Amino acid sequence: MKKTVSIYLTLTFFLLNFSCAQDLKPLDNEREDTIIVDEKNYEMEVVFEDENLIWGLEILDDNSILASIKSGSIIHYKDGIKKDIKGVPEVYLRGQGGLLDLELHPDFNKNRLVYLSYAYMKNRDDGGNTAIARAQLVNDSLKNLEILYKGSPVSRKGQHYGSRMAFDNENYLYFTIGDRGNRNVNPQDISVDGGKVYRINDDGTIPDDNPFIDVPNAKKAIYSYGHRNPQGIFKHPKTGKIWTNEHGPRGGDEINIIEKGKNYGWPKITYGKNYSGTTITKNKSLPGMEQPLYYWLPSIAPSSFEYISSEMYPDWKGSLLAGALVFKYIERIGIKNNKVVSRSKIAEGFGRPRDIVQGPDGYVYVSIENKGVYKILPKK
Q: Which CATH number covers residue 147?
C-alpha cells in the first residue's frame, strides 16, 4: 500500500510540474489585465511540413532554413528540399530536454559558426543538463564541434532546461538554463547552475567584467539569477538590451529586461501559484529583487520571443511576438515606454508555436509543433 501511494504521489508531482504539456484553466482569482483581440491582417503560409517538434529556427541570408528537431537532429531546408545536417551531438532526450535552440554567429557569413543548446548526457543513469556548443556549418555538416559550457549538476529531472540564446552588440553570447525543477536551491544559489541567464564570449571564455567573476565559488558565466525557466530571448535592436520571457508556475509568466548581476526573485517572489492552486509565497516583491516588466495572469506558457522591426508589418513594427503554448496562438504584445499597452492573438488554435524569428527578408517565420514551419504574410 505504501509503495502504491508513493508511486501515485511521484506521478502527480511530475504531471503538475510538466507545464509545457498542460492546457491549464485559470484559477477563480486569476485575471486578464489587458484586452485580447484577434488580428485580422495576416495569413499563414506553409513553408514546409514536418511532424516532428521543431524547437529552434534560423533563417539564412539565402532564405534557406535551419531547424532543430527536439529528438536530436537538424534539418536544412532549401529550394523545397530537406537535408539532414551531419555531426549533430548526442542529446539527452528526457521530458523537455533534447536538442533545443540554434543561434548563428553575428559574422556567420564569414565564419559559418552555428551555436547549439541541448540537454547533454553525462550517462543515462545520472541524467543531464543544458550545454552550449558551437561548430562550423560546412556542406550540410557540423565540423569542429566544441562544447563551450556545461550546466551542472546533472539531474534526471525532465523539466526546465531553458536553452534560448542571443548575441548582443559586442558579440557576447547570452543563454538561459531553467531551474531544472529544483526551485528551492538552484535559482538563488550562484555556486550552481540553473535558474540563470549567462554571458560568455563567442569562444566560450568568460568576460572579465561578468558580475560574479571575483566571487569565490560562483559560476563565473552567470549574468543574472533568480529565474524559473526562460524560453524566449532577443536583443532589442534599439537599446541593445537583452530581453527574456519565462515560464512562471500557474500564473506569473514574466517579461524581463536583463541587467548585470540582478536577482529576478524566483522563487522568493512570484505572481504565480503552484499548479495545485496552493501558495508558493505571499511575497510579490522583496528588497534587492527585480520586478518584471510584465507578468501574465493566467499563464500563456511563453515559448519564444521576437522583436518586430520589419517594414513588412507596419501595424506590428515595434511589437513583441511570443508563442503561447497553453492557448495555441502567437501573442502580439504592444509596448510603449517599456510598458505593455496591448495584446492580440495571431493564428489562434493553429497549434503550439515553438519558435518565432524574423528573417533577413523581413518576414516572420514560426515553427508549429508537429506541423512544420510557416511564414506570416501581411494581407495587402
A: 2.120.10.30
Q: Is residue 87 part of a domain?
A: yes
Task: With beta carbons less than 8 A apart as the criterion, state whether 353 and 367 touch.
Answer: yes
> What is the domain extent for residue 213?
34-378
Cα separation of 7 and 28, whole Å? 30
Whole-number Cα distances in Å, 130 to 101, 152, 195: 11, 8, 11
Distance (Å, whole) CA 62 – CA 76: 12
Number of domains in the chain: 1
Record the pTM. 0.91
Q: Which amino acid is at 14?
A: F
CB-count exposure of residue 170 (10 Å: 0-12, 13-18, 19+): exposed
Q: Is residue 367 part of a domain?
A: yes
Catalytic machinery residues: 160
**Would you say 225 and 187 are in contact if contact means Cβ atoms under 8 Å apart?**
yes
CB atoms within 10 A of CB 7: 10
Q: Establish if 5 belongs to a structural domain.
A: no
- In whole angstroms, how large is the CA radius of gyration of the chain? 20
CA distances from 12 to 9, 19, 50, 221 (A): 5, 13, 32, 35
Q: What tens-digit pLDDT sequence spans the chain (380 residues)?
A: 444 434 433 443 333 344 343 334 443 334 455 668 999 889 999 999 999 999 999 999 999 999 999 999 999 999 999 999 999 999 999 999 999 999 999 999 999 999 999 999 988 789 999 999 999 999 999 999 999 999 999 999 999 999 999 999 999 999 999 999 999 999 999 999 999 999 999 999 999 999 999 999 999 999 999 999 999 999 999 999 999 999 999 999 999 999 999 999 999 999 999 989 999 999 999 999 999 999 999 999 999 999 999 999 999 999 999 999 999 999 999 999 999 999 999 999 899 999 999 999 999 999 999 999 999 999 87
Which residue reads 545520472 in cell numbers?
A: 126
Pairing status of strand 230-235 against strand 353-358: unpaired
Q: How many CA atoms lie within 13 A of 375 on its CB side?
A: 18
Residue 192 in any domain: the answer is: yes
